[in-house]
Amino acid sequence: MERMAFAFEKTLENKTKKEILAEKLIEMILTGLLRDDDVLPSERELAQLFGVSRETVRGALSQLTAHGLISVSHGSKTRICASDTVLARFRATRPDEMVKEVNRFDINSVFESRIIVEAAIARRAAMRIDAEGIAKLERLLQAQSQLFDSPVHFQLSDQNFHKLISEYADNEILLRYAEELYTYGLSVRRQVMVEEGAIERSYQEHGHIVEALKRGDPDGAERAMLAHLDSVYRTTKAKLDTSLSRA
Q1: Can you list the domains of the chain with their CATH numbers?
Q2: 185: closest CA among 244, 145, 245?
Q3: HEC profile for the chain?
Q4: C-alpha–C-alpha distance, residues 170 and 221, integer Å
């Protein structure tokens, strides 16, 4: 039986899992994480990443194909179609709530909020996570260790890593805030991830978080999460500052 990947999204309980996954992928396109001509992971990889069946993945991808946001050819890789023209046409047909608004805030406000929310998440998760949850995180880490040269795939895995920890905090409000705040500056994070050593650094920080969660150590989990967020903040801000200075 297929596990419900989005167990805490109670407001979406009337939607099918393929609809929820399709909206997640659309969000990644609209926030700039997935860009025009990017190659998506395989159906099998997406199924493992999001904890759903390949049938669910195929259903979600068929919806994106219908919107013209991906192209799928038999025997070829699935590619993102996200040119300015395609995105403008898509946005004209979708309700405004599909587009996240967190990017209108400044980076300091966003990361001050992330510190509060994700520190609480790390502490709660350390007290609640079970052996199955640790095993899932360790499998994600193993996969991430092979993605040092794949920034898009790593970022997809990174999002799932943070989401899984948030789910084990067992607080739907914290989960929603964390997901909303995570979307901030994803296009900038993508630029950071292509820099030498950036993915490996993030991977190592993830490892410290998992170690603390495995010990059931709330203080250690909070410290590891805050150290990770500080690294993400500093590198994102530096990239934003560089972009502004060139503008």
Answers
A1: 10-98 (1.10.10.10), 102-246 (1.20.120.530)
A2: 244
A3: CCCCCCCCCHHHCCCCHHHHHHHHHHHHHHCCCCCCCCECCCHHHHHHHHCCCHHHHHHHHHHHHHCCCEECCCCCCCEECCCHHHHHHHHHCCCHHHCCCHHHCCHHHHHHHHHHHHHHHHHHHHHHCCHHHHHHHHHHHHHHCCCCCCHHHHHHHHHHHHHHHHHHCCCHHHHHHHHHHHCCCHHHHHHHHCCCCHHHHHHHHHHHHHHHHHHCCHHHHHHHHHHHHHHHHHHHHHHHHHHHHHC
A4: 16
Q: How far apart are CA 109 and CA 178, in angstroms?
A: 14
The interaxial angle of helices 186-193 and 218-246, nearest 10 deg, is 90
CB 113 within 8 A of CB 177: yes
- Across the chain, what does the average pLDDT equal? 87
Q: How far apart are CA 133 and CA 138, in angstroms?
A: 9
Query: In this predicted model, what pLDDT tens digit does every residue of 44-62 receive, in sequence order?
Result: 888 888 878 999 999 999 9
Residue appearing with tokens 């978080």: 209
Please state the pTM of the whole predicted model. Answer: 0.78
pLDDT digits (tens, 9 = 90+) for 101-148: 666 788 999 999 999 999 999 999 999 999 999 999 999 999 999 999
